[in-house]
Structure formats: C-alpha cells, structure tokens
C-alpha cells in the first residue's frame, strides 16, 4: 500500500513563506495516502491562481488547466475513465468567480469528483483584488472604497445545488483537513471542501489568528451532517464562531451511475478501431 | 432528366419532414438528389422552404429555379414566383379561383388542390396536409406511389399502425385527387431508374458518421444552429455505439470536457457555430499548450454576433485560423460536400492524435443541413500516432510527457498506468510538464510544438483541380461553394466558356507551393466566396503573394446558386 512519502515530489513549492497553501498541501498528501489508493489511480486537475502549481508537488497524475475551468476538464476525464479518482482544485476567484457556472452544474450532476477550493477570500496571484467571497466593505486594489457586493457563500450554494458532500476545512489545521479530504475522496458523489486559507501577503483581515479565534469543529458538538435545514443554519454562521467539518452529506446516485454506456467498462477501454457503422448508415437510406 | 421541387409554408407545417421524405423517395428510385432548406429563426410562423433537386446524374447543389412548387400558403407563391422555371407548375391549397392567378406569369400552370378539404373529409388532423401534398406531387409527376407508402410506413413505425394507415390514406387521397382532376399532371414524368440504394445525408450527419467510424467515444456540445444537428445525431447513437454524449452548460464546458476526455485517452470532439466557438477559443489554446488532441467542428452562419441564426455564410475562416492567444499549430480543413465531411472527420481524429494538436473542421449551414445522395461510406482507418499501448507503457521509465524529439511529437500515454505518473500543463513547462519560464526553455518548447508543421505539411493532401487544365478561367473556392461551383461549371461549359476549379480543403497549414504553381499557370483567376471580404483570397495573397484577378462574393445569408455563379462569371468575362 502506498505511504505518505509516495505522494511527495522533490519540487519545492513557490508559495510565500507562511502561506496557507502549505497546510493544504500537507493535508492533501495525507488525505490521498489515507484513502488507500495508489498514486497512479489519482488525477488532480488544478486551475490558475496560487494553488495552481500544486500538481507538481504531489506525486499523482496532474493536469494544470486554466482559470476557472478545472471542473469541466475533471468531468471529461472522469467520464472517459471513471476508474481514475478525480480531484479538482481551485482558488476562490478561480472556482467561485470565473468558474461559478461550472461549479453549480457540476454539483447538479453529482459526478464522483472531489473539489477542493483554496478560499483566501482574495485574488492573490494577481496581487490582491477582491474576490467573490470577500465580505462586503472589503477594501483592496480593485475596490479601494470597499466592495459593494455581499459575499458568495459556497456552502449554502452547494446545499441548494445538489452537492452530496459539503465540508469546510481550515488550512491552519492540517490534521483535521486531512481527514475531511479522505472522507470526501471516499464519498461517492460530488464533494466540496471549501478551505479557509489565510493569505499572509494580501489579506490582513482573515488572518490565521482571525480564524484560530473563531473556528470550531462541528463534530465536537455532536453535529450530524444529515439534515439540510440544520446544515443551512451552520452554513450561514459567520460571526464570532465559524464552523469547520462536514456540513452535509447524502447518498444519491452519481452521474456515472446513470450513464448507461459506461456501466460495463470505462470509455478508454473500448476499442477505437473496427467500429462498424453499416447499420447506422441504414437510417439514411 | 432534371427536376426541381419545392415545398413552402409556415414553420410548423411539416415542411422539413415532407422535404426529406421527397428526397428519400427519389433516392429509393435510384435517382440522385440534393436538397436544401431555408427557414427563419422562429418555431411557429415565418416562412420555411425546402427544395429537392433530382436528377439521373449526380447533383452537387440546389438550383435557382423551381419546376414544381407546392405552396401550403399564399405567401409561398408570392415569395417564390420569381424563381419559377419558365414552364413551372404551382400546387396550391384551394379551389379553382386563384384570385388574379397570384400574379404569376401566364406560362406557369396552376394546380388547385383542396388540401384542407381532403384532410377534413378523412377526419384527420390538418397538419397532415403536407402528406396530401406529397401524394399530389407523386400524381403530378407520375412517380410510383408505393415508394411513398413504404416510406410513410417506416417513418411512422414507432407511432403505430393507426398513424401509418391514416398517413397512407391521406397521401392516396392527394394522389387520387390529381388523377381525377389533373390527369395530365405536370407533363413531367419521373421514373425510378433502378433500386440502387444510396444514403441521403447532410453534412452534420456525415461528420458524425465519420467520427463514429473513427472511434469517437466522447462528444460534448451546447446547442447552436447549424451545429446542433450533429449533437442530435450523436445523442441518438449514444447507446448504439457506446459513446458519452453530453449536452453541457455552455460551450466553454463543451470544449473543456472534450479536452479532459481526450487527455484521459479517448477520441473526443465538440462542435458549435461561431458564437459558441468564440467561447471555446480560450480552451483551444489550452489544448495546444497541453498538446491534447482535439477535434472541433465550426459550422458557420452569418455574424457578427448572433447574426442570422439560420442562414449560411463563410465569414469565420480568419477567426478559426487565428482563434486564441499566442502562436500555436493547428490544422484547419474545409470539406466541400458530404463525402468530404465524412472523410474530414476521420482524417481530423488521426491528425489530432498523430500530432497532438487541435484540428478544426470548418463547415457552414448550407453544408451541414443540406442532404445529398452518396454511396455508403467506407470505414475510416484509425491512426493514433505515438499513443503507447499497454506493453509499451509497462516498459517505460522516467516518462516525460513533453519529451523533446526531432519531430516535436512526444509519446503519449493514458493516465492511470502504475508505471507512469505525469503532468500536463497549460503554463509553459519543461519536458516533465512542470512550470518553467526561463527564456531558453520557452524557445525550445515553442520550437518543439511548432516543428510538427513540417511533417504535417508533408502528409496533407494537396488541393484539387476540377475541370480541364489550362482553362480560360480558374475559379478558386473552399467549403460549401464547391457544389454550386461544380454545377456552374456545367452551365458555363454549355455556353462554351472553358473553366476549371481549384478547391482548397486544407487551408491551414496553407499549401502555398501547390496553390502558387496552379495560380501562376492559370490564365484568369476568380475567387468565389460566401463572405464580404474574400477571406480565402486574403490568405492566398498572404501566403503566395498572388492577388486573384476577380472576386465573386455573396453575403446576404444565402448560398450561391449555380446560375448565379455562371452569370456572374460570364459578366466578369464580358465586362471585366
Ligand atoms: C481568463 C483569465 N482571467 C484572468 C486571469 C488572471 N488571474 C490569474 S490568477 C487570478 C486570480 C486567482 O485568484 P484565486 O483563484 O482566488 O487564487 P489565489 O491566487 O488567491 O490563490 C486571476 C484573475 C487568468 N489567468 N485567466
């Protein structure tokens, strides 16, 4: 069986010292190792943003795609070969800004994909602009007088869009996030993990201390992630207390389960040569 | 024998179904057919027309004249009376008093047929008037009614015996009415020649069949006229051929899913029209940078923007050739008829996989939605290029996805093999697919990707010349104008004009040497294009330094008719 070390690569991350991405990376490697699968069975699709280079730091198959487009690429890979464990990784600008449409549709479909969003409530790679998850009033280079829009709430959005596993993690607590990641990978269906990630360079509000003071673990309070109404209540909690853990989980058929043509085998295993179209041509006669 | 039939009426009257039935009926009699349909972007109301041209020789386009017009409403007569052949006939729904003979020329014969009464008397739905009109047509041209009965039986098979029988009854009633009241018919008799069976197929379906034969496994698209026909055809074949056909949330997702599926190792394709392709351009570049094979069909319609949603134009050549940022290699091919559509699809998959590049098939509304009779297609020969098989993957160590090779082509694998873990990357990268932005690496990788062009150019089919070498006039064109040009050549030859035709299918990379040779030895060159700016003419000038002598352009949203091309060439020849 694969061990944690098998998921490491010798490449050194380029992130700022103290970046929340380090915690997420450690948790991700651990989560993959704990899932019991081998490195070659995984396919990670990343987007553009600080997280994007992550595929190089983990020894699994990777596809560094483009800004906001991880989910459709992941979907195509998954439908072509559902024997691959597909993980899509984005940032909040990436996934909830430019990629918002894909996000909602991916959840409706409930493909068996794990979606991890590095949510630093900012655009960082482009040097600090407001993001869809920035709070109203948040002031940045692109919103010097404070952002006027209210923030997107990925968790309530996921609840209403049909994600079948919805969780929030915290980059400052890698062991906890590691467990969430394993659980998401093991869950059959679309899993969202929104990860609170301090950006040490640009976000002076949602800092490590900000979260340390507020986050609490749902499981510590005996919360059971089975009831949508209760999940909504926790999902909107953003004050002196901010919940992390699994908010909601349900078993429903995955998209793959219902695609008739991939029941017997993945598409990649079907022969390409020698397809007979004689009968298909008859309809044109 | 040559005959042009048209049915026209409001959208919702069943014009499309009637037209296709007519085409198939002629094809079943061993005759050759070309049909085309015109309709506005409306579901109900608005004028639809469907022209079926039939002949005992192969036909390549529609015509500018009508021998028999079936007018399901008065508007149809008013809209098409100027297209009537000098001794053409019009069937209209009604009794003897075609008030003021619709103002049509005295030589045109009119056949009043009480279509609404016929269906009323039989107690069937008024929508079935079109079937009565088909029966009447058969009577007027003396064509074998059993062919129509056989077709109606097949078409309505799934709806049950009752529906089949009432359709047959209506068709017969139309036929009988003609036999009793207009026994002389149109004077034109069309007889089946033999029962040799050909396909009656349009460009969308031909591309789809070619893709299936090439081993297509994944098709993702978002509906947009005129590419939607391909989505519909493949969706219906999903289970017959074990594909996944995905109607996505938008065109961005359509192309990205296809790229994902292709990266995973299957043959994948997407298609759209210009507006949807505009959304795909971002991902097109990603396919190029990640060296993921990809086939995209772009079915043109008039732009800019939503333009004329249901009409035809060749205005997107430059867009398709240059879409997406950066310098990268792609193949752009423009099939000119349904056989070439089939072949282009097969060729596109082989090229995409061999060179690990995007391949674009550019078609248009006229080509994708017009049917033509063709012989059944031969199977596509599959060439997956340097895609490693299982044993080869077993033997690999230290796999480099973007390994530098002389040809620029790196061996490709399917992700998931225990021996091989690798990264694909849309950022500039090193051989392993890892980010690397140093200047030397950038130059090396750009060259690697671009170097493939040399082998591509060597293997691409050269452009074709139709007609006599050394003719007085050389017409130059691409895509769907092929059909009208071939037909126009016949008309011109009848008028003693010696003409040939240079068709360019692979427009990018451009076959500069061959085209240059041909054009330099041509006496007088005329570009024929369905656009405002002579886009191919511009490409020719750019790549060969040759300016075509004249251009015949049309950009009103309708395809050329052969007569139009012939007349305009003759005008050019006389007036310069
Ligand atoms: C189509 C497109 N638009 C814009 C950009 C520029 N861009 C790169 S990263 C980024 C924002 C990233 O923000 P986020 O996803 O929150 O990740 P972070 O950098 O904060 O980790 C943007 C806008 C791009 N690469 N592509």
List keywords for this structure.
A: 285 residues; alpha/beta; B: 576 residues; Pyruvate-ferredoxin Oxidoreductase, domain 3; 4 domains; 7-stranded mixed beta sheet; 21 strands; binds thiamine diphosphate
Order of secondary-structure elements of chain A: HEEHEHHEHEHEHEHEHH
Share in helix of chain B: 25-40%
Largest interface: A-B, 56 and 70 residues
The rough form of chain B would be described as globular
Helicity range of the residues of chain A?
Answer: 25-40%
Give the amount of beta strand of chain A, in percent.
Answer: 15-25%
Annotated CATH topology of the largest domain in chain B: Pyruvate-ferredoxin Oxidoreductase, domain 3
Domain module tally of chain B: 4
Q: Mean pLDDT of chain B, as a whole number?
A: 96
CATH superfamily of the largest domain in chain B: Pyruvate-ferredoxin oxidoreductase, PFOR, domain III
**Poorly predicted segments of chain B:** none
Would you state the CATH class of the largest domain in chain B? Answer: Alpha Beta
- Distance linking N and C termini of chain B: 34 Å
Q: What Rg of chain A, in angstroms, do the CA atoms define? A: 20 Å
List the helices and strands and how they pair.
The complex is a heterodimer of chains A (285) and B (576).
Chain A: H1 20-34, E1 42-46, E2 61-64, H2 70-80, E3 85-91, H3 92-98, H4 100-109, E4 113-119, H5 154-161, E5 165-170, H6 174-186, E6 191-196, H7 208-214, E7 215-217, H8 228-235, E8 242-249, H9 255-258, H10 278-282
Parallel strand pairs in A: 1-2, 1-3, 3-4, 4-6, 5-6, 7-8
Antiparallel strand pairs in A: 5-8
Helix pairs in contact in A: 1-6, 3-4
Chain B: E1 2-10, H1 15-28, E2 32-38, E3 47-55, E4 66-71, H2 74-80, E5 84-93, E6 109-113, H3 115-122, H4 129-140, H5 145-155, H6 161-181, E7 199-202, H7 203-213, E8 216-221, H8 228-237, E9 244-247, H9 251-264, E10 267-272, H10 274-290, E11 294-300, H11 317-322, E12 331-333, H12 338-355, E13 358-364, H13 365-369, E14 371-374, H14 390-395, E15 423-425, H15 439-459, E16 464-466, E17 473-477, H16 482-494, E18 499-503, E19 506-508, H17 512-520, E20 525-529, H18 535-544, E21 550-553, H19 562-575
Parallel strand pairs in B: 1-4, 4-5, 5-6, 8-9, 8-10, 10-11, 11-13, 12-13, 17-18, 17-20, 20-21
Antiparallel strand pairs in B: 1-3, 2-3, 2-14, 7-14, 12-19, 16-18
Helix pairs in contact in B: 1-5, 3-4, 3-6, 4-6, 5-6, 7-8, 7-12, 9-10, 16-19
The structure holds thiamine diphosphate.
């Amino acid at each position: 069986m694969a061990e944690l070390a098998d998921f490491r690569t010798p490449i050194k991350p380029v992130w700022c010292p103290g970046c929340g991405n380090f915690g997420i990376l450690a948790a991700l490697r651990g989560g993959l190792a704990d899932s019991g699968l081998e490195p070659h069975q995984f396919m990670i699709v990343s987007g553009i943003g600080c997280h994007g280079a992550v595929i190089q730091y983990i020894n699994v198959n990777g596809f560094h795609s483009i800004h906001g487009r991880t989910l459709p690429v992941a979907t195509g890979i998954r439908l072509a070969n559902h024997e691959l464990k597909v993980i899509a990784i984005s940032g909040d600008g990436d996934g909830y800004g430019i990629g918002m449409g894909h996000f909602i549709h991916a959840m409706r479909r409930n493909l068996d994909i794990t979606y991890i969003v590095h949510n630093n409530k900012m655009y960082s790679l482009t040097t600090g602009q407001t993001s869809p998850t920035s709070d109203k009033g948040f002031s940045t280079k692109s919103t010097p007088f404070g952002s006027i829009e209210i923030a997107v709430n990925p968790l309530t959005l996921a609840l209403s869009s049909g994600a079948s596993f919805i969780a929030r993690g915290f980059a400052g607590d890698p062991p906890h996030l590691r467990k969430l990641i394993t659980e998401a990978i093991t869950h059959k269906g679309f899993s969202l993990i929104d990860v609170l990630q301090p950006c040490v360079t640009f976000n002076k509000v949602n800092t490590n201390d900000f979260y340390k003071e507020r986050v609490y673990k749902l499981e510590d309070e005996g919360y059971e992630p089975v009831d949508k109404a209760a999940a909504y209540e926790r999902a909107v909690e953003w004050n002196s207390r901010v919940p992390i853990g699994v908010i909601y989980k349900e078993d429903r058929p995955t998209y793959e389960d219902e695609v008739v043509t991939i029941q017997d085998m993945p598409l990649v295993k079907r022969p390409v040569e020698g397809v007979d179209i004689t009968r298909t041509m008859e309809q044109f006669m | 024998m040559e005959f042009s039939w048209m049915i026209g009426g409001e959208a919702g009257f069943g014009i499309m179904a009637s037209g296709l039935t007519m085409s198939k009926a002629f094809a079943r009699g061993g005759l050759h057919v070309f049909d085309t349909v015109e309709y506005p972007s409306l579901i109900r109301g608005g004028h639809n027309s469907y022209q079926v041209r039939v002949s005992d020789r192969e036909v390549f386009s529609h015509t500018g004249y009508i021998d028999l017009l079936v007018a399901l409403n008065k508007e149809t007569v008013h809209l098409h009376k100027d297209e009537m052949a000098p001794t053409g006939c019009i069937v209209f729904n009604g009794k003897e008093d075609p008030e003021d003979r619709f103002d049509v020329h005295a030589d045109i014969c009119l056949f009043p047929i009480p279509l609404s009464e016929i269906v009323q008397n039989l107690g069937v739905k008024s929508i079935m008037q079109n079937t009565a009109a088909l029966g009447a047509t058969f009577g007027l041209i003396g064509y074998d009614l059993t062919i129509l009965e056989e077709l109606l039986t097949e078409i309505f098979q799934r709806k049950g015996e009752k529906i089949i029988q009432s359709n047959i009854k209506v068709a017969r009633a139309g036929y009988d009415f003609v036999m009793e009241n207009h026994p002389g018919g149109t004077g034109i008799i069309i007889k089946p020649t033999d029962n040799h069976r050909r396909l009656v197929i349009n460009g969308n379906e031909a591309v789809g069949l070619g893709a299936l034969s090439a081993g297509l496994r994944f098709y993702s698209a978002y509906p947009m006229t005129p590419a939607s026909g391909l989505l519909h055809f493949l969706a219906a074949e999903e289970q017959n051929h074990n594909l996944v056909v995905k109607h996505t949330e938008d065109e961005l997702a359509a192309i990205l899913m296809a790229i994902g599926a292709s990266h995973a190792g299957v043959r994948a394709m997407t298609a759209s029209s210009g507006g949807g392709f505009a959304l795909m351009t971002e991902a097109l570049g990603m396919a190029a940078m990640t060296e993921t094979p990809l086939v995209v069909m772009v079915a043109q319609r008039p732009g800019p923007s939503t333009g004329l949603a249901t009409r035809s134009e060749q205005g997107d050549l430059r867009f398709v050739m240059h879409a997406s940022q950066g310098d990268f290699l792609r193949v752009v091919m423009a099939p000119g008829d349904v056989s070439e559509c089939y072949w282009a699809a097969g060729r596109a998959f082989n090229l995409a996989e061999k060179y690990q590049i995007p391949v674009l098939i550019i078609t248009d509304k006229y080509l994708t939605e017009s049917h033509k009779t063709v012989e059944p297609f031969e199977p596509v020969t599959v060439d997956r290029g340097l895609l490693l098989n299982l044993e080869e993957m077993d033997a690999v160590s230290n796999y480099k996805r973007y390994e530098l090779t002389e040809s620029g082509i790196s061996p490709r694998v399917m992700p998931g093999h225990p021996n091989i873990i690798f990264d694909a990357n849309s950022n500039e990268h090193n051989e392993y697919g890892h980010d690397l932005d140093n200047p030397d690496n950038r130059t090396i990788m750009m060259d690697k990707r671009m170097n493939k062009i040399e082998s591509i150019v060597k293997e691409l089919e050269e452009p074709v010349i139709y007609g006599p070498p050394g003719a007085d006039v050389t017409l130059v064109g691409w895509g769907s104008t092929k059909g009208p040009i071939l037909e126009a050549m016949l008309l011109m030859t009848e008028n003693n004009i010696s003409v040939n035709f240079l068709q360019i299918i692979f427009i990018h990379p451009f076959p500069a040497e061959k085209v240059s040779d041909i054009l330099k030895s041509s006496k007088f060159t005329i570009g024929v294009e369905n656009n405002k700016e002579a886009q191919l003419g511009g490409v020719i000038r750019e790549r060969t330094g040759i300016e075509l002598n004249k251009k015949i352009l049309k950009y009103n949203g309708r395809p050329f008719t052969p007569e139009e091309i012939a007349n305009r060439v003759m005008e050019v020849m006389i007036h310069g």
